[in-house]
Amino acid sequence: MAASEKIPVTEARRHGRHRIMLAATLHSVHGETGGVLLDVSEGGALLNASPPLPPGCKLLLERQNFEVPGTVRWVEGNRFGVQFDEPIPAELVDALVTKSAYKNAH
């Protein structure tokens, strides 16, 4: 697929996304960097970090007891999409969403 081609959303997203805002740590060949987890689904996440990790970069996303490997698929400004190597359980997504809602309410 050429770099300018886009995958239709119906094909690219298999899982519902949940908006959250939680601090996260990203580990990659570029080192360790802090970022913000902006949304999450069973298949991936939207993150914000400065500087962002480049497309194709393998990483380990860490948030307290949550660790999941993935690959950066796209970058726009400081935001970038990560596809997880394997889908995460829906219960884990729910736990992150609940934690974010609690944090943002207090």
Structure description:
The protein has 106 residues and is α+β, with helices and mostly antiparallel strands. The protein has one domain: Thrombin, subunit H (Beta Barrel). Helices cover 19% and strands 46% of the residues. It is built from two helices and six strands; from the N terminus they run αββββββα. The protein has helices at residues 9-12, 90-105; strands at residues 18-28, 31-40, 44-48, 58-63, 66-76, 79-84. A six-stranded antiparallel beta barrel has the order 1-2-3-6-5-4. Strand 2 and strand 3 form a beta hairpin. The chain starts with 8 loop residues before the first helix and ends with a helix.
CATH level-4 homologous superfamily: predicted glycosyltransferase like domains
Q: pLDDT below 50 for ≥5 consecutive residues: which ranges?
A: 1-13
Helix content: 10-25%
SS class? alpha+beta
End-to-end Cα distance, whole Å, is 45 Å
Q: Could you say what the CATH topology is called?
A: Thrombin, subunit H
Name the average pLDDT.
84
What is the spatial order of strands in the main beta sheet?
1-2-3-6-5-4
Mass-distribution shape: globular
% residues in beta strands: over 45%
Count of the domains: 1
Radius of gyration: 13 Å
Write a compact overview of the structure shown.
The protein is of the alpha+beta class and 106 residues long.
From the structure above, extract its key features:
single chain; 106 residues; alpha+beta; Thrombin, subunit H; six-stranded antiparallel barrel; 19% helix; disordered N terminus
